[in-house]
Amino acid sequence: MRNEILKYLETNSRIDLGELAILLDSDEVSVANEVAEMEKEKIICGYHTLIDWDKAGVEKVNALIEVRVTPQRNQGFDRIAERIYNYPEVAAVYLISGSYDLLVTLDGKSLKEVSRFVSAKLSTLDSVISTATHFILKKYKDHGTIMVPRKESERMLVTP
């Protein structure tokens, strides 16, 4: 039952537990207890709301920053990742494969603010070798949700 609960919560964290119980052919108490246990075990780490800030009229800049670092003996990438994720501007930090080691996502008010963060804080860390910043210009799909309106069919209506 855990995997089924997680699948539903991943796409709709606001689902009513009674409704979820019906979908799972279970009772609400069992589902609520299972969710509470998964929260306690940190399987469920949090609940988030996906917001289209452009539609809300809020100026916001999102950036993906690739970071090459020198791993530290006996600690690998963990120590530098921790230093980076403790900055309040940082939304996420991922260890990745490829030519860079870490992928940092950042939310800022302007391109200048993000650039300042990268040059003044991120690039100056001892273990950081290099960075490459990519600004998100438009979101088409985020966390499984399509962010752009779907186009109506462009086919011409054929009438007899």
Which properties best describe this structure?
Tscrpt_reg_AsnC-like, 2 domains, AsnC family transcriptional regulator, sequence-specific DNA binding, flat, WH_DNA-bd_sf, 21% strand, four-stranded antiparallel β-sheet, 6 strands, two-stranded antiparallel ribbon, alpha+beta, Alpha-Beta Plaits, 34% helix, Tscrpt_reg_AsnC/Lrp_C, 160 residues
**What CATH first level of the largest domain would be assigned?**
Alpha Beta
Q: Number of helical runs? A: 6
Strand order of the largest sheet: 2-3-1-4
Assign the CATH superfamily of the largest domain.
Lrp/AsnC effector binding domain/regulation of amino acid metabolism (RAM) domain
- Alpha carbon gap, first and last residue: 53 Å
For the biggest sheet, the summary is: 4 strands, antiparallel
The percent range for strand residues is 15-25%
Shape: flat
Number of strands: 6
Judged by helices, strands and strand pairing, the structural class is alpha+beta
Q: Supply Rg.
A: 21 Å
Mean pLDDT across the residues is 91
CATH architecture of the largest domain: 2-Layer Sandwich
- The tally of structural domains comes to 2
Give start-end ranges of low-pLDDT stretches.
none
Pfam families: AsnC_trans_reg
Protein name: AsnC family transcriptional regulator
GO molecular function: sequence-specific DNA binding
Domain Transcription regulator AsnC/Lrp ligand binding: 65-138
